[in-house]
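Quick one: structure tokens for this chain, please?
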Amino acid sequence: MREDDPTTATAPTTSAETPEDENLWLEDIYGDEQIAWVKEQNAKTLERFHDPLFDSIAGDLRTALDSDDRIPMVTKRGDHFFNFWRDKKNPKGVWRRTTWDSYRTAEPDWDVLLDVDELAAREDTSWVWSGAMVRRSDHRRALILLSPDGGDSHRVREFDLDDRTFVDGGFDIPAAKTRLAWLDDDTVLVATETDADSLTTSSYPRQARALKRGQAVSEAPIIAEVPRDHVAIFVGSDVRPGAETTDRAVIVDAIDFFNSQLSFLDLDDIRVGGDTADTDSTLTTDPAEWTEALTAVDVPTDVEVGFERDLVLFRPQSNWNAATTEVPAGGLAVADISAVKQGEITPRVIFTPDAHTSLQSFTFTRDYLVLELLADVQSKLTVLDLGNDFAESTLPGVPANHMVGLSAVDKFDPATANDYWMVSTGFLTPSTLSYGTLGETPATSTSEDGATCTPIAEVIKTAPALFPTEGLSVEQHFATSADGTTIPYFQIAASDLELDGNNPTLLDGYGGFEVSRTPGYSPVVGIGWLGRQTRTDSLGRRGVYVLANIRGGGEYGPEWHTSAMRENRMRCYEDHSAVARDLIDRGVTSPRRLGCAGGSNGGLLVGNMLTQYPELFGAVSCGVPLLDMRRYTKLSAGYSWKAEYGDPDVAEDWEFIKSFSPYHLIEDNRDYPPVLFWTATSDDRVGPVQARKMAARMQAAGIDDVWFFEDTEGGHSAASDNEQTAFTRALSYRFLWNALTGE
């Protein structure tokens, strides 16, 4: 439904009650008294759990994360293949590149462009790599993003790849939650913070500027802006080498997490001083000319819009009646950009989901469109031939209980225009990187409709096995939620698992923001949990790991997500508890042997397991969590998530939000399982204060076994480098193993 639809009901505006909060003082993230509280909590937690087993887990995790045998995933730009790499020698990492012939060897010859450890030492700043954007015109310059503390804010600096230095007088944007894109060699489109008025209530940029080389960001003209109560303004570009395609700039008004409006312009329409072939031409930064050139794509705001050359793509979150066509929720449709410019949008549906199959993502090569699908959380790849009326074929060889992803190598280079990378991974199968070309098809693989795009893929690299998998197996099961909905989950356990309820079991999940949890090889889970074995049990039981695909996620498309938003949020918690009960009923485990873990929105999930279903669990590990749902919109970036959870300042919303706000569900005289809250001071997305307050309230209530740990770096992932990742994850696993086994 469009934001300006006159049939939309007026939103309720009654102010909600404000419950008493004795821990507001802990919301001062960097205050001396607050940091002293954090240090005291950290000391108690480490005194309890930092033992030889903890050191063993952390050491093994660090060794695996630093392994030289990991696959160095690369991105092709020009004639080089770029990779960012962390290891024991370079914990902060190096940005490097190599050639194709070298990359194919067992030990590529890497050309190091930037050593982040050396840079951090020289500039006395604990830089954390956030990415790089190489200029496509000549592949000589890059915009490098570096976070000073591992948070979402990063500084952007222009880097010369030939000279291996930051460009004197080049683009240099102070640390902020910046989004930007190259428009030409001397112009970038940027959304960043310049003053308080430049940010939304969610703490993201709301103004887009056209920034010229040598110009201060604050002096660059504002060419678009969005209201302060929207989430953010995002910017992008589609700039390709050569003159045969049209270069474009893109601006997105992110109204909330699931509603947006996209506008675009052809760069030729704002070019001055020459035509597209004139090297003396430049791009105007006159806001009036930008406004005149921009075309807003007039579709419902819950339709995701994308571009590929002269195709406009549409993926609606709900059923969309467009002209004479109905595009189903989670479907994919296309239209010609010339018609879109004229406001004549008559999309053609090229993918229709069903009750079991959903579109997760898609990738273009020059001549093909590859759809990445999930069928009952099983991976499937479908190829559409752009030159053959979207004729369809399926890529073979996708194994059960595995995840296969595909990406284009470099569609802008004629030599690799239809080449692709394919990564296959499973819970017990290390990742394999293959390389293939769409269109190179043996005759026996030609599809019935004549499409010739089944590939011949060559294995390029295989990751090493980093934990023992002998005797383990992967199974998919289905639980039944409170309303009768079938909930799939994966179980990784010993093949001869004793179904007597005594197996230490870790239940993982997320259930939010249409994020799908799929099979994947995780040395952290393998070493930290699957590789553990009880010593006091005569059977030497190994840890059981379970991944639940609950509602709120995207495993079955957008409706799987929207069915657990706002007033229906309890469905994802009912789903997760249903999986827990199914594990108990099947004899896999029992409440005293069952733990759950989750981070961010997954932290909110396990916070609700802790407070609403404590009788089902023997331990809870709750990382970088949302927990205080009365004040979450006032903390860090929380305001941006109102579409997911509701607005706690509105009485009608608070009435249902308080039913899943763990901070307000703690009860006196109720038994709770042991819990560890872990977070990071520098987390500027959720922030550390909700974990602080939850731990403080539970401890003040006299509840036993409430532990807290806050790292000073690492941002929302609490992982600025491999050492920190190993440390925080080892703490979580050590706590869980002790609580569930007594060891």
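The CA atoms of residues 115 and 189 lie 27 Å apart.
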